Amino acid sequence: MYVTGVLSLKGGVGKTTVTLGLAGSAARQGLRTLVVDLDPQGNATTALEPAESETTIADALENPSPAILATSIAPSAWDDAIDVLVGSEDIERHNHPDPGSQRLGRLSRLLAALPRGTADDGPSRAGSGLSHYELVLIDCPPSLGQLTRSALVAVDRAVLVTEPTIFAVSGVQRAFEAVQAERAHNSRLQPLGVLINRYRTRSAEHEFRVNELRELFGPLVLPGVLPDRTAVQQAQGAGVPIQRWDTPGAREISQHFDNLLGRIVRAGHRAREQKNPRRTG
Description:
The chain has a 7-stranded mixed β-sheet with strand order 3-4-2-5-1-6-7, sandwiched between helices. 43% of the residues lie in helices and 13% in strands. Mean pLDDT is 91; it is low at 118-127. It has helices spanning 15-28, 43-48, 57-62, 66-72, 101-104, 106-112, 146-154, 166-182, 204-217, 230-238, 248-275, and strands at 2-7, 33-37, 73-75, 82-85, 135-139, 157-162, 190-196. It starts with a strand and ends in a 6-residue tail after the last helix. The protein has 281 residues and is α/β, with parallel strands linked by helices.
């Protein structure tokens, strides 16, 4: 199981869109995926339309146990391969501005209750009530309180999402600094890269900001910026993954998400190899 956080410290840059795009790509490739909706706005939950759950992530963080976790996860209407750790605006009560280490570790302890293994091991709902997941995607809130910091303690990689605008560039700088700071609590944590979203080719301002981001972050800026396409809003309005919206713009965006998912999967493989090196001789 590989855990990836999607974050920005500026709202409205498409963070949830990236989370959903990755989930759609993972489902198309047959990867059993859990989307963790950590944002009090709950947009990922709204888009994925999970079945009704007895509890939500707010309850699970209050009592991080396998039993509560199992009742807070529901299958998505999008695909059988996608489940949702259901979001709730009540999670805001967990967003303390200055949490202690115990509070910061709650999400990590919660995810540790998920069965380890791969989809080949088969579902385990009959036992613990939980499934094996190959990928966990955490949609973080656009603020640096307990929720985002607890996500950074729990993840292996962080995707930093930005738009090519002045305020979004400032937000992604602060997000990068937050990742570096939380490495003191999570030695596995590394930034996967900076993803530029909603780029318009004919905008001189966007071109200027893209160059600025490349100067600031160098090779951390991910190749293949996401273009601004109406297909994203159309697919979300229709309640389907971008991968099922059959237009040229949707296919272009889908290819970008496939490439990003490939980077996540490769990073996961490298991390496992480093943790469990093969013995020779």
